[in-house]
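step 4 of 6: structure.
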Amino acid sequence: MQPGLSFEQAPPISVPFRFFLTAPLFGMAAGLLLLWQGPAALASRWTGVALALTHLIAVGFMLQAMCGALLQMLPVAAGANIWQPQRVTHLTHAGLTVGTLLLLAGFLSEQALFFRIAVPFMTVSLGAFAVIVLFGLFRTPAKGPTIVALRIAVFGLIVTLSLGATLATSFGWQLALPLTEITHVHAAWGLGGWSLLLVAGVGYLVVPMFQLTPPYPGWFARSFSVTLFFLLAAWSITRLPLQRPDALQAALACAAALLAVAFAIVTLRLQGQRRRKVAEPTLLFWRLAMVCLILAAAGVALQQLKPGEGEDYAGTPFLLGVLLLVGVFMPVISGMLYKIMPFLNWLHLQKIGKPGLVVPNMRQMIPEPRMMMQLKLHLAALALLLGAVPLPWLVYPGGLALIASCAWLEWNVVEAARNYARFKVGLAEKLAAEQPD
Amino acid sequence: MSGITSALQQHHKLCDDDFVAAEDSARSGDWAGCASAYGKFRDALLAHFGVEEEVLFPAFESRTGMTGGPTQVMRGEHVQMRDLLRQMDAALGQKDADAFGGAAETLLVMMQQHNMKEENILYPMIDQALGGDGELQSRIAAGLAA
């Protein structure tokens, strides 16, 4: 069979939904951890608490939602079919959920045992996910900047996982490795090589699609992902094998930051030229994320230009972490869930019915005022957590607001799942009523 | 790109303006404006489906012998989009802005992901299979202009 011919092969709705229902719970856990630890959470990026917080959001929330969305969208948007979708789903979901808990336990308890379990468990489950997805992305006949960005992004995920596994191995078996350097490279690939490129690849498709904006300029879309990849690769080489922070390395980091700013500015400009004028929640979440991306990238560049000052000031890593995780990626993901879930509901309900039977539309799946409320709570969380850098006690209201935002998100995604079940029963009853026997 | 499907790709974009005008008018309660813009959008969309189903897909299917594959999926999605048009027709008749907006948004996402599949996967396959069939190209142009 020629690959890509069965692009109707959308997975069952339970495949992506289990990821979407799980992700906000880890966001709430991050908020709880902030409340529990208070200002101590801000002390340094190298404490177990800081690492636990980072991974609750980066793996528990972000990677969880991203993997679910990718499994859903690959067959549709990229014509890439996943080998054994059901098994891959179970394995990936378990890997992410149990994996996040293992990392959390390991960082908080500093017990080697948790890392000894996490290493093989997460390497097998998430590694299999990444390799299978990458294989699908290379087999698809589809072309275009999204496919290129997604291939590099998944490669970036593999780099992130490998370095993460290396770090966890050294915690589990007390190996002497250059941990600081590996951590820098691990974080750069996780945030830039994987997360930002995934956002870009998906953005090329959905930014014009949802708001009817002009498309991303072809030259930009084609060169962005490849350039970012080479900059990251070159930067990693100066950092890891050579381990010599110098001017070349700072220049490479600044260039990568500048590229991220360019992506944010292009996206904001396209959204400014949108033909649909409705300011819907998804658009607002995206715009918030792009503004935070500009601020975070500026922060990264400043840190490179004045390295001494950045390291003296312990608040800088927390500030950048909040901007990137809470300001950029959590909002993009929330905004995307508010489009993906209602559309999937409609698409799957449509298949149950028959032509002519009215299926509830997308706007009947999650009430829009509730999406807006989550946006407001999330903005409050972001502002308070940024404020906690100069005023550490703000970490308490900030943690509370983060819990509230994630709880609200969970309520909204549960509403989408419940409405799917409710409408499904309703449609089945209508169909039964139409058939007299 | 100058393949056989380039006219259809252009046409995907052309439908957008009337869609936006119809959506805006419905939201502001201008039902006369909505009816006129929506009417144009609806005609253009149905003409597009017609050309694909009656001219392009049969030509591709008879050349490649592939009848159960992607063209079948596209036909199925056309049925779903026609259903949404019917919902919009009804909402327009009842001047129900919520129902019109909800069906419009659903149609927009459906339409865009449908176009994406066609432009990224199916059209390139068709261009490859049918090459420079000039007669087919003019039949497509005529169908879209009708």
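step 5 of 6: annotate
 - Chain A touches chain B at residues 4-8, 76-79, 141-144, 205, 209-210, 212, 275-278, 339, 343, 346-347, 350, 355-356, 358-359, 361-364 (CB under 8 Å).
 - DSSP finds 13 helices and no strands in chain A.
step 6 of 6: archive
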